[in-house]
Task: inverse folding
């Protein structure tokens, strides 16, 4: 495992080697990155509700994975440059939620993506849109 791969394994969002991270795991479905995630109570901002910053992290991670699924180039390094979030309904802790990211389009160095947190009953709880940019290595 290279140093880059080892540090990626420590990613706060998806790093399986990060014992204090979210440890999200994604699948590619219908042109999107999708994760089933149950937030533990210690990630609450209000009793029984996932902290808004954690929701933003969940969506940011899903959107980044959507880009990597669409462009599997191992040399692709990207970073979020704009992020917009809308909390529509409370996202509960201790409930299995679907976190989804989808690449909408790519223009030059930029990737435009959307994401959503969805309840088990299919209600959209939180939505996000972002622009990511290809960055130079090193």
Result:
């Amino acid at each position: 495992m290279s140093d880059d791969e080892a540090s990626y394994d420590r990613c706060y969002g998806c790093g399986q080697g990060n014992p204090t991270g979210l440890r999200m795991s994604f699948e590619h479905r219908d042109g999107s990155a999708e994760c089933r995630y149950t937030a533990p109570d210690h990630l609450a901002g209000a009793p029984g509700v996932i902290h808004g910053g954690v929701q933003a992290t969940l969506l940011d991670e899903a959107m980044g994975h959507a880009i990597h699924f669409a462009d599997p180039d191992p040399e692709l390094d990207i970073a979020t440059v704009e992020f917009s979030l809308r909390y529509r309904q409370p996202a509960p802790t201790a409930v299995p939620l679907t976190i989804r990211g989808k690449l909408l389009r790519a223009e030059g160095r930029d990737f435009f993506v959307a994401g959503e947190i969805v309840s088990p009953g299919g209600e959209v709880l939180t939505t996000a849109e972002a622009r990511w940019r290809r960055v130079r290595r090193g």
